[in-house]
Amino acid sequence: MSEPTGSQRDAASAIFNLPDYRVLDAVDEDDGVRRIDVESTALPGCPQCGVLAARVHSRRRQRLRDLPVAGPTELVWVKRRWFCDQGRCPRTTFSEVTDQVPAFARSTARLCQELIAAVVVSGRAASEVARAHRVSWWLVQSMLSAAADLLTDPDLIPVRRLGIDEHRYRSVRYFREPDGSWRRYEPWMTILVDADTGRVLGVVDGRDSAGVGTWLKARSQAWRDAVEVVAIDPSAAFRKALREHLPHAAVSVDPFHLVKLANDMLTHVRQRVVRDRKGRRGRSVDPAWTNRRLLLRAGSTLSPAALSPAALARLKATLRADDPTDEIGAAWGVKEQLRQLLTSGSLADAHENKMLLGTYVLAAGMPETDRLWATITAWWDAIEVLIVTGVTNARTEAANTGIKQIKRTGRGYRNPANYRARILLASAARTAA
Fold first, then answer.
1. CA–CA distance, 102 with 299 (Å, rounded to integer)
2. Phi and psi torsions of 166, nearest 5°
3. Can you give the pTM of this predicted structure?
4. Same structural domain for residues 214 and 337?
């Protein structure tokens, strides 16, 4: 005699697919919502003594929030109260509790998991997920907050390389002072990231040393001792916090921001030269303004052997036509020498390139190049660490890009706690995938 090896559930229970429950009835309501009555299938044990129950005391109907199954549904659990027949047990009756509906719960576990996945993994807005599942925004947010509380403690995540970077939490605002003047306020936040995995470990207010220092101080001594290299932007505030709380860790400066400083220097020189010569801002008739992006382009992509020899010819023509004092050309040479320095393969090459850079700066003799040289000199130790270790803020910047997408999806955030929870959950899900 052969017997089927598949599921022994009835068809309705198999389609509804709520673990440990079977469908008793399904009715179409007038508003187009299907009401589904279910009953638990497992005999519960007494929470006091653990003896399995056999006699039903009473039944009551409890509405539950659940996933929409082939359209909007209303789930009703025909919940039973059982007798405890153990004579010595002080508990005479008790209600059913299942994995899908724990004690005091009003939503199924599969709904909670779907809400979290829809926001964190799929990147949808909490309000949109709430509308799609016919629940309140508060329920979605409470699920996210509960999930964030279960995240691994940063002290339990060993980190060898740390990245620190800031981003603007909200838009710039202006407040009127009592004297009638206006004060500019920029709400910043700083993230601390595992530079090896890209996981966001913490989000703190501001971009000063106090917020970063407080977060580092809260970590265990073993965690701080394990950190070997920290990658940061050229920020004196971050470096101050690291010297105080991670004195043994080497600090590496991100090369992207140094190149950006060089590009800004070149832009300031170009603007000053145009103002001094023509008494106005640059216009489309000026070759230097028309090719301003070409000036910022990496020189290695403009060589005759590259795919764009025409760009190199256009750059030379621009400097001949619109740079009679050779100041723009000198600034461009300083910028390119800095790029060459940052790509050095060894400390010996780096020191040689630094000497050449100093020569170019001395020959340029401009306040813009002098300021850049002062920055390079102040951060030279961190540049040496960058050349030796190769640790950059690339993963930290990638995390910031993901954070910006979270802000766009949510149309901004007013509650910092909700904002932090969303960032930490999304980062944990992305690095775990």
1. 64
2. -110, 160
3. 0.83
4. no
- 116: Cβ contacts below 8 Å, ≥ 6 apart: 143, 144, 147, 425
> What is the rounded average pLDDT of the residues 250-267?
96
Q: Nearest 5°: phi and psi at 10?
A: -70, 165
371, 377 Cβ separation under 8 angstroms: no
Q: Would you say how long the chain is, in residues? A: 433
Q: Which of 98, 70, 81, 97 is nearest to 12 (CA)?
A: 70
* pLDDT, tens digit, 9 for 90 and up, residues 310-321: 888 888 999 998
Q: Does 280 share its domain with 426?
A: no
Tens-digit pLDDT profile for residues 29-44: 877 788 999 999 888 8
Same domain? 262 vs 365: yes
Residues 6+ apart with CB under 8 A from 357: 334, 337, 338, 341, 373, 376
- Cα–Cα distance, 306 to 302 (Å, whole number): 6
d(CA 356, CA 368): 17
- Give the residue carrying structure tokens 């400083």: 261
Q: Are both 260 and 371 inside the same structural domain?
A: yes
Q: What is the rounded distance in angstroms from the CA atom of residue 192 to the CA atom of residue 164?
A: 5
Q: Are 253 and 386 in contact (CB under 8 A)?
A: yes
The dihedral sign for the CA sequence 270, 272, 277, 281: positive
At 171, which amino acid appears?
S
